[in-house]
Amino acid sequence: MRRLKQWLQGLLILCLYLLISAYAIIFTNNTGCTLWMLATLFLLSEIISLTGSLKRVVLASEQTVLTSVGQPKLVEFSLKKKKRYLLGFSKLKLNSQIPDLSVELLFYDGRKKRVSGEWLPSQRGHVKESQVTAISGDLFDWLQKSRKMKIVTDYFALPEKHKQSSQLARLLERAMRQTTFGEHSFSISNYRPYRPGDAIKQIDWKLSSRQQETILREYQLYQDAEIALLFYGKKSNYFEEMLSLFYGMQEYLHRKKIPVILLGEQVSATAPSYKDYAKIQPLEADVQLPEVSGKTLFVFTPESCDSLNLEIQRLQRRQQVKVYTYENLMTKLEEVRK
């Protein structure tokens, strides 16, 4: 239908030009000559606007884009023509949905140019290509032609941070802390004046003699336990929610430099990068859990299953393992909030 409309519009323009030419031939006056020259220039501009080949237009994405679901990001493209070709358009439009690109260029001559659009990912993942529609035509949009181009992209949409990630991070920090019993064996955290009821063995006699006052040593009663975090990406309806919660939690804990392991389809990383959180998919088959010697292993999984329970039992013979499913975590966080 659109192509038929284009042909009818082209036929109408040609008929108008022939009428003006006939008028200029019949009535040999200045008005007829002027109309014929203007019509000829207009017709030439219409022809030129359609002779440029869209196959000679090159659009490329030259950047790796990293953002989170729901967070807009400006992305850039490089627009140019293929070598050894002359190129010219009265009007050139570029449109795409991923990213949201809507660009209109007047009198584009093929020189390298940067155009940009906004990408607002609605779901997590790795976008490897984008489809862009290029439209060329005259200044009045009467005659147009279009071509769809597939552009190689490298866009990563990270999980959206779960709203309860910070609360889970605080719970995990408390779980990491171990109370010591008996003799204090940790570093001194503070000095203060002695108060009645304090343990005499904590008095620093050398410092007290210098200060002419009884000074007490306060010891650090807690220390962080050695732990490792593991995400086991079992296929589940809670996969995305658990990944979002795990991603947000370890983002809050990144300063503690806790070892993190990510297990899923397409990703099996002991030191995952941000890109791994975009690429990971639910496991199609069971995988073996790695052993982390000397550390308590915290396993986060969307939901439990028999194969995972067997793996946990195997690891518990050599190390301490704690398992959390999404529903269990939500229940625990709800109880803490109350």
How would you sum up this structure in a few lines?
The protein has helices at residues 2-26, 30-51, 165-176, 205-211, 239-252, 274-279, 306-315, 326-337; strands at 57-61, 64-68, 73-81, 89-96, 101-108, 113-119, 125-137, 144-158, 177-179, 188-193, 215-219, 222-224, 227-232, 260-264, 267-269, 296-301, 321-325. By secondary structure, the chain is of the alpha/beta class. The strands form five sheets. It has a five-stranded mixed sheet with strand order 2-8-7-4-5. A five-stranded mixed sheet has the order 15-14-13-16-17.
User: Strand count, sense and closure of the main sheet?
Assistant: 5 strands, mixed
Query: How many beta-strand elements?
Result: 17
Poorly predicted runs are: 179-185
Adjacency order of strands in the biggest sheet: 2-8-7-4-5
> What integer value in Å does the Rg equal?
35 Å
Helix content: 25-40%
Straight-line distance between termini = 63 Å
Structural class: alpha/beta
What is the residue-mean pLDDT, rounded to a whole number? 82
* Helix count from the secondary structure assignment: 8
Oligomer: single chain
Q: What fraction of residues sit in β-strands?
A: 25-35%
Large-scale geometry: elongated
Helix-strand topology string? HHEEEEEEEEHEEHEEEHEEHEHEH
